[in-house]
Automatic annotation (TrEMBL):
<dbReference type="Pfam" id="PF07729">
    <property type="entry name" value="FCD"/>
</dbReference>
<keyword id="KW-0238">DNA-binding</keyword>
<dbReference type="InterPro" id="IPR036390">
    <property type="entry name" value="WH_DNA-bd_sf"/>
</dbReference>
<dbReference type="InterPro" id="IPR008920">
    <property type="entry name" value="TF_FadR/GntR_C"/>
</dbReference>
<dbReference type="Pfam" id="PF00392">
    <property type="entry name" value="GntR"/>
</dbReference>
<dbReference type="InterPro" id="IPR036388">
    <property type="entry name" value="WH-like_DNA-bd_sf"/>
</dbReference>
<keyword id="KW-0805">Transcription regulation</keyword>
<dbReference type="InterPro" id="IPR011711">
    <property type="entry name" value="GntR_C"/>
</dbReference>
<feature type="domain" description="HTH gntR-type">
    <location>
        <begin position="7"/>
        <end position="74"/>
    </location>
</feature>
<dbReference type="InterPro" id="IPR000524">
    <property type="entry name" value="Tscrpt_reg_HTH_GntR"/>
</dbReference>
<protein>
    <submittedName>
        <fullName>GntR family transcriptional regulator</fullName>
    </submittedName>
</protein>
<keyword id="KW-0804">Transcription</keyword>
Length: 230
């Protein structure tokens, strides 16, 4: 019972730290000291340490010998590599989901897209002005999209790569990403291809969806504070 309680505390602390990193509360290069974080999240330094250790394998936190934990600085070349891996991983996951997914999976996906379509996109959330509800809904949609593959390791990798990409988007100057892209239409086209069981088209649309985001970031560049000292 005690172990379960600690695991629950770690999970909830990870969720809080992740949210704060992805909404810009913790900046790239910023140290994540155990004692202040324990006070901030009202838990123990042991729970914070374990949370950060788990997060250090998922791109949002780095653990440097003798320097402790911090949010990583960002680079555009690293983003391009992350996106390549993300596209390959989710191409496989989506192909398998279309092959293995049943009507319940389809219905769940359509419901997630419907909720996202009717969720206010702008409002209190991250520093780009995207609402927290919309950000959560978008993440849920992409999780469900590949969930029928039934491979937990693949789902975990996709989740981590999505968070990493979100961090880059947050610290870029790509305001057009939040204001002018027709994300609802892009999602609708992917869902239609899935329902038609057209794996080739669905994979192509998903890859174009991700590449479009990365191209905007590459074009806009990263804020100097995210790149770090020269």
């Amino acid at each position: 019972m005690q172990h379960d309680n600690k695991s629950s505390l770690v999970d909830s602390t990870i969720a809080e730290i992740r949210r704060d990193i992805l909404t810009g509360q913790w900046k790239p290069g910023e140290r994540l000291p155990l004692v202040p974080l324990a006070k901030r999240y009202e838990t123990s330094t042991t729970v914070v340490r374990e949370s950060l250790m788990q997060m250090s394998s998922n791109f949002l936190v780095i653990n440097e010998a003798k320097q402790g934990f911090s949010v990583p600085y960002l680079s555009l070349s690293a983003l391009e590599d992350l996106n390549r891996v993300r596209c390959r991983a989710e191409e496989l996951a989506l192909e398998l989901s279309i092959e293995r997914g049943d009507l319940m999976w389809e219905s769940t996906l359509v419901a997630a897209q419907h909720r996202l379509k009717h969720t206010e996109r702008f409002g209190p959330g991250d520093q780009r002005g995207l609402s927290e509800d919309w950000l959560d809904g978008a993440k849920e949609f992409h999780r469900i999209l590949i969930s029928a593959a039934g491979i937990p390791l693949l789902a975990q990798l996709a989740d981590a790569l999505e968070d990493a990409t979100s961090l880059y988007r947050l610290w870029s100057g790509a305001e057009a990403d939040t204001e002018t892209r027709h994300l609802v239409d892009e999602h609708d086209e992917i869902v239609t291809a899935v329902i038609e069981r057209n794996a080739d088209k669905a994979v192509r649309l998903l890859t174009e969806h991700y590449n479009a985001s990365v191209e905007l970031i590459l074009k806009a560049g990263l804020r100097q504070e995210a790149i770090g000292p020269a």
